[in-house]
Amino acid sequence: MKIYIKNMACESCKILVKEALEEIGISSVKVDLGEIETAKDVSDADKLKLNRLINKAGLELLENKQGILIEKIRQVIIDYVYKPEERQNIKFSAYLSKELNHSYTYLANFFSEVEATTIEQYMIALKIERIKELIIFGEDTFAEISYKLDYSSAAHLSNQFKKVTGLTPSHFKSLKEKRRLTIQNL
Fold first, then answer.
1. What is the per-residue pLDDT across 83-118, written as a single tens digit (0 to 9) for each?
2. Whole-angstrom Cα distance, residue 186 to residue 180?
3. Half-sphere exposure of 8 (CA within 13 A, CB side)
4. What does pTM read for this prediction?
């Protein structure tokens, strides 16, 4: 049985979900970002228990098809931004269509209708948070970050970063208290 989870965006989330499943006594075949596959069907009572356990971490079970598709779109965007090795020089629109087996136009219109933001705006917000993370780690130059995130240049990255945050990447780097958002708050 497949169960879909909203806001599951990191390895820590996977660990938390695995622990919650063990606590309830549900054996899982696979736990991926946004999706669990169980060996047996899960009762409504167990789903309710699971939902209560994962809600503490901002996660939530998805029951309707709309929510499931939105979460799948989000996961593909997250993978595209955070795992550049998987995208193999393919345009995002083609990548999303291929991954979800729908036309990009359909997915973009659906996402905009349900989320009241565009896929592009969501992706930019996610990229900005990824840039902040990479700046905080301090291992990459702005040019390397721009290459990793498919910006045409460090200047393009800097302009978009400033447009969204009001700060230049250099100014952000110099701040004592770094301001980052969780993926759930994008």
1. 877 666 788 999 999 999 999 999 999 999 888 899
2. 10
3. 26
4. 0.72
11 phi/psi in degrees, rounded to 5: -65, -35
140 Rama sector, left if φ>0, alpha if ψ -120 to 50, beta otherwise: beta
Fold of 121-185: Arc Repressor Mutant, subunit A (1.10.10)
Q: What angle do CA 73, 75, 81 make, to 5 degrees?
A: 105
Q: What is the largest CA-CA distance in the chain?
A: 53
Amino acid letter at 44? D
Q: Where are the domains of the chain?
A: 2-63, 66-117, 121-185
- For 99, 122, 132, 159, the CA distances from 77, given in Å and listed in that order, are 10, 8, 17, 21
Q: Domain 2-63 belongs to what topology?
A: Alpha-Beta Plaits (3.30.70)
C-alpha 121 chain-centroid distance: 13
| Alpha carbon distance 82, 35 (integer Å) | 18
Q: Please count the helices (runs of H) and the strands (runs of E) in the chain.
A: 9, 4
Q: Can you tell me the distance from the alpha carbon of 166 to that of 159, in angstroms, rounded to the nearest whole number?
A: 10
Asked whether the beta carbons of 89 and 128 are under 8 A apart, the reply is: no
